[in-house]
């Protein structure tokens, strides 16, 4: 196993999926506070008690114990996001909220105490609600200015503490989930392509601007983009399927292309031309994009899908689904499991962008069963999770052998948290079980699953303990 020295092993979560305390200490509402069904139903008028994210796993009050458990596993890095509405409650406020800033100071200090590097997503599906309702989120160019103000505030506050930053979580998902991803209040079916792609442009400009500001304010920092990586395989060798997949891939790769090459690719210009879309660039934006490409590319990887001009049986998926692959098995929640797809995507991204890569989400959402451990506590025998992670990590090792530079690996939902797509807690990803159920019952107690000890060993041995 050739994991390099200094490989950043760890875990990942997002503020809205773990913190709870949705209105504590001056936090404003964000879009998640009115999305009790994730992307499966339209938003509610106001927060409703059935919204699991209002309390989530109460990380806001329990982070010290949780970070201690991460340290026990040997984490080198912990990825979380800053909830924008803790810092600027309405997004367009004049002054930041000191209590919100203080919370992240304390959280990052707690990580650093154990030698855990924070990896921070600046915007992870949690746009302040006011920005969504009043401005229609990223459709509005004004969001660039609000984001810039927020970014300057957090860079200034956390420089010296946070070295690794991601500008937007899964930026390419805005095409599929405009509210969750882009804070766009207009429903997808009513949203014009013009507005949707203009929103993408605003996010890409904001991302380049954040990169520029980071370089000015914190020269030691590393800034990455973050995309959903979901390989699409042609269902058949029919050239029609090959071209269909190529075109589908363009919609995903476009975001990384702009982040890494600094220009809009020709295939996108063609798509805009043929669909009557005209992206409006403000003065200087072309230069801004060109001069501020990212330091690294990060991505989530859970599964692959198939596509064909002939159609086929549809499978479930992470915000975007596709045709089922007859060669793969699926998780409890219908996502098809494809460890080799991770090696494939690592090679593809490296070939395409020549930037170091960081796997910032990978993991298995499952129906875990809590049992007595025989020593007076409880546990979960999650051998299926160990197998999933082991098999994916073997493919990371293969990619490293292929010569792909991989900076690190953070498993998704290292502690059980609320699902982004369905807002359920029963879809569990963690090494740590949290006693909370979708009907609101549970003590919020934490229990170590079998995978806890397994991951600890993987980290301690720098991957040598993985089973071929
Ligand atoms: C990604 C998101 C995460 C996370 C993960 C798992 O799309 O970046 O926030 O939740 O997928 O998805 P889910 O929670 O829907 O199972």
How do the helices and strands line up, and which of them pair or pack?
Elements: E1 8-12, H1 15-18, H2 59-73, E2 77-81, H3 84-87, H4 98-113, E3 117-121, H5 129-135, H6 142-158, E4 164-166, H7 178-182, H8 193-217, E5 222-228, E6 232-234, H9 239-261, H10 266-274, H11 285-291, E7 296-300, E8 305-307, H12 339-353, E9 357-361, E10 371-372, E11 378-379, H13 383-401, E12 406-412, E13 432-434, E14 446-448, H14 450-460
Parallel strand pairs: 1-2, 1-12, 2-3, 3-4, 4-5, 5-7, 6-8, 7-9, 9-12
Antiparallel strand pairs: 10-11, 13-14
The structure holds 6-O-phosphono-beta-D-galactopyranose.
6-O-phosphono-beta-D-galactopyranose is lined by residues 14, 17, 169-170, 300, 318-319, 361, 365, 412, 419-422, 427.
Describe the structure in your own words:
The chain has 468 residues and is an alpha/beta fold. 38% of the residues lie in helices and 12% in strands. It is built from 14 helices and 14 strands. The strands form 4 sheets. It has an 8-stranded parallel beta barrel, surrounded by 5 helices. A two-stranded parallel sheet has the order 6-8. Strands 10-11 form a two-stranded antiparallel sheet. A hairpin with a 5-residue loop joins strand 10 (371-372) and strand 11 (378-379). It is globular and about 65 Å long. Bound molecules: 6-O-phosphono-beta-D-galactopyranose. 6-O-phosphono-beta-D-galactopyranose binds at residues 14, 17, 169-170, 300, 318-319, 361, 365, 412, 419-422, 427.
Structure, briefly:
The chain is an alpha/beta fold and 468 residues long.
